[in-house]
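User: Continuing from earlier, I have the next pair ready.

Assistant: Great, send them over.

User: Here they are, in order.

Assistant: Folding the first of the pair now:
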Amino acid sequence: MTQQRKLNNGIRIVMEKMPAYRSVSIGVWVRVGSMYENRQNNGMAHVIEHMMFKGTSHRTAADIANEMTAIGGNMDAFTCKDCTCYYAKTLDIYAEQALDILGDMMCNSLFDEKELKKELGVILEEIDMYEDSPEDLVHEHLQMAVWEDHPLGYLISGEKDVVSGFTREKLMKFFEKFYVGENIVISVAGHFDEEAMMSWIGRCFGEIPQGCRSYSGCAPIFKPVLWTREKDIEQNHICLAFDCCTVLSDERYVMTVANNLLGGNMNSRLFMKIRDELGLTYAIYSYGSSYEQAGLFQIYAAMQPSQTKQVMDGIFEEISRVIRNGVSESELKIAIQQIEAELILGYESSYNRMSGLGKSLLIRDRAVPLEEDLSRIQQVTAEEVRQFFEKYLRREQCGAAIVGNTHFD
């Protein structure tokens, strides 16, 4: 059973006890990411995530790292398009110390100008690292292309010429707007006492100002464009994108099953046909990217340049086969059983349970229990899957990105 509480400053708390565990996972979820930025501050949410580990009025960066290591825990953070998360996993007896560190970072980070200058250098190196990765390039730049000029298409890391100009003053203005109670969810899963946990959370996070919830604005317009980047590498990396359902739509359950069937695992249609039967590629998979305003269904593959057209034709032939013939009940049953197993096994981790509950409450305004997700997946029909392919996965509605030899035959 999950419990939900709320602090006076608007911070929402979701907790799930796992009595058989000795660990506890804690996540501080903030409703800010690249989709809340503009061209002038793109990358700032990501920079702030980095700077939160660079020292507070009570702890140096080394203190933060050393204290977390001393209690045998793991602390990290990540920035997405729609949220930023700071999390810690440790033994139950050290939960209060972990919360104290997280709360100190949220309330008392210094954003020191000298540290900022050094960290910007690190982040610019990180951006260059992504530029050197064709798989990252093809995914991220395709989203930029199909969602042209909309914040959902922005790079999470930002562009180098923009990021290099960030100052402490600019960061503080952004931080004070978004790091407020109405924008924060704290998620806890594992072994803990609820009342003690609430007391610690109130002490560590109660001084954060309430502020206003951030809203994501209008939805992007999907454009089925082709983006290419010539690179002197051995393989071509391709990514296809289709306009798809949002994270708030009930169709997301059908998308989960459709993805599993098409390219979500080793017995999927694309893997079995294009990799195993035809031997055209080593890596091929599909996935969904859903947000409040919009969503994408994407397919990735890497192959020899001379086989690019054959792989792309093979992908669309498999999609057309589903539209024409549907999927069998036995294929559907196997897919649903596999998804059920992944969900249940995943929820045996306190971190995964914390993550699922926290992001669900932050983005969907309700902590959706595992049982509800399982029930909705089980209700997906073969005809719903066929209709999903027919509605969303049409060649004429497809955007594409290619990195490598873009002059293939």
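And the other member of the pair:
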Amino acid sequence: MSEAPQPTTAAEKQSSARVLPALILAMLSFSVVQTAVVPILPSLAKELSVSGSSITWLMTANLLSAAVLTPLLGRFGDLRGRKPMLLISLTGLVAGSALAVSTHSFTWLVVARVLQGAGGGVLPLAISIVRDELPKQKVTGGVAAISASMGVGSGLGLVATGLLLEHWSYKSIFWMGLAFGLLAVALVAFRVPSDPVTDKEGGADPLGAITLAGWLSALLVAVSQGNTWGWTSTKTLGLFAVAAVVALIWGVIEVKVKHPLVDMKMMSRPAVAFTNLAGLLIGFGMYGSFMVISNFAQTPEKLTHYGFTATVLHAGVMLLPSALGSMVAAPLGALLIARRGPRLPLVLGGVLGAVAMAYLALRHSHEGDIYTASAIFGLGIGLAFSAMPAYINGAVPVEQSGIANGMNAVLRTVGGAIGTAVMAAILTGDTMKLPIPVLLPTLDAYKHAFWVAAAVCAGAGAVPFLIRTIKPTTTVAVGNDMANLGSGPVLAKTDA
């Protein structure tokens, strides 16, 4: 039998109002900073006098740093407290933004992007803090809001980049990141209480941390640079081999060590393993699709007879509906999770993503097509993001929440790197001859990219059927109190 939720006290409402906005802003800060440089990489290459292949390190370095530091910060949060680790994560983002503002060196700008990658720890830490601090009936809605904020921030970052470049230099983008980061640090410091949940019986696992960083580094560098080096080159294949060997060593270490960084038994539970697979596929679809849509919109129509000759700002505005869709998805996803469990929103997320990309493969001649597909895609991504932490939190104990959600975030990042690389390979593999020394993809190349993204999103939508249903422990009464709309209960832990 399910129990009716207890009334929310004034103190609990005040706690939600204080804590949740700070955590959402922290998540927005990282997601905006991570994606803001994507549309300006070609202009940055000219500004910094580096090659087009070298400039991609500004994304590779950030993805690599986020992938390595996210699970480490999540685990240290489990061991030593979530708030201190969240402040360290945001401090890295602020330090990286400050360094980027102060330098004109490409090398130091790469270092700055590495520091900004520490912000990746925000997601698992913020989700764990919500689980600790908010009343039970508010947890699902809070987690959904934070998770969907990643999609919102990614869309807003693209728009903000274009808007800033209309009036100022590329430095203004890093000033934006610095301002967001400082505000997030202040809010977290003063509004988020020190959490009582720590894994007092746990311990450090330095060898596990080193090997995790090793195989993730080798994998992401190989994926990110494969198009430049060649997928069959010695360097690319060598790094893939190193990643496979070190990942195997890491798995053996984590099984045998007394206090593992990542509990492999926890990772092998179907609710966690298949959710991580869904995260990998959703990351592929999101990052890859954003890149393809932005490039398609900016293609000069007079030369190619497709595209919209859009500026960076115009291309960002075309993707703005994705941010709005993700905003709508947060309360909707929480409501669906509370009533039906996380399966339905995750399935819908994958299906809507597939529908949006299939729509663009078939209809792409009017700007309205981009706006429509962007809105549908953002809604799907937001629903998927809200569902994945619900699956994981329902299957792991609270003391493993940080590392479990951290590994899910890592696999989204890995999926994003793979998606970006695959989409770039599709676009560069089919180009047209033009009277200018620039290679542009054919329209068929873009159609193929859209179809691939649709297939990947459809796969993400199918994954939840491999997971045993996790039902909420309580029902949610939806009345006139809009503050409680979609605020679901904590999901029951299961053996799924």
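Worth noting for the second one:
DSSP finds 19 helices and two strands in the chain. Residues 1-8, 471-496 have pLDDT under 50 and may be disordered.
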